[in-house]
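= Tokenised fold =
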Amino acid sequence: MRDVCIIGIGQTPIGELWDTSLRQLAYQALKAAAADAGIERPDALYVGNMLASRLSDQAQLGALVADFCGWRGIEAATVEAACASGGVAVQAGVRAIASGMADVVAVCGVEKMTEATSHEVTSGLATAADADYEVAHGVTFVALNALLMQRYMYEYDVPHEAFAPFSLNAHRNAVSNPNAMFRRAITLETYRKAPIIAPPINLYDSSPICDGAAAVILAPLAVARELGITPIRVLASVTATDCLNLDDRRDLLGLEAAQISAQKAYEQTGITPDDVDVFEVHDAFSIMAALSLEAAGFAERGKATHLARDGGIAPDGRVPISTMGGLKARGHPVGATGVYEIVDVVTQLRGEAGANQVQDAAIGMTQNIGGTGATVVTHILARE
């Protein structure tokens, strides 16, 4: 198995990008990543996407994007794992490089959500849940997360306001990210007065519907050195699964797939949570940030909100999260999110995060979650 490195990154701003099509978004991110890496044509392309076939009436994104990028003829495929599509696409690229089946791989996550109606988007997102045992009874994706949040608050005697630091931290960090959707800080009072979407989840507990694309270029360590690039090594890339239906979970608040994925990543790398300098969590909802921190070993069960309250998740805290705004404020174009997380960590490890730079960041971790935790992929990256 060969050592795998990230040699290029690219991204588009996230927002309501009415004038940019799905293929154009992917093109912009991939061409930026290719230019950053100094390559013209990859051997393979993996595209992470969840909703294009429903919201854009478009499948075969691998071939579509390869052709639009001028790479007709290369191996290309679409990867779907709900909101974890981007992270799983990166894992596909990592495996292609590690196995020796490709020398340069491009990975892009892309999503176009804002041109559909709210009903269409809600229906599309609900496909990440169990169609027969959850969606058929009228449960939406936000409602499922609300159930988790309600249970967490009851189980650990936590008030709703205890989740506010996750939102405040994300919005504060997004101010300095030119690619973020919401580049404005919020106050505790703003959080308190936010409209309720599904009790207890309010507007600032939730990530937005948006458009965007992010991309990375992967190569073996030897190729990176030949190109004269300072690489970011992929130390671990691990996916684990759980059942879709919350009612079947062995441990409702344990986020078992996240725990398994993180633990295997730690075992592969020989590191512990104490060694991680920056952690990009999948904060699609505040409750997911808390559950991910606990499952990955950064906080004890029921204590993630305490970590956030005490400043532990800030850029100068014990485990900085959402350093460029996270899903809440940077934005959550679902199939692209896992790749945006990778791009954010690479930016930190390169020392290019500007005002949001985590001092001396050498090891970074991402956790990309599909559905309410049915698919979880963890990556650990390190500065070479």
About this structure: The CA atoms of residues 2 and 98 lie 4 Å apart. The domain at 4-117+209-232 is CATH 3.40.47.10 (Peroxisomal Thiolase; Chain A, domain 1).
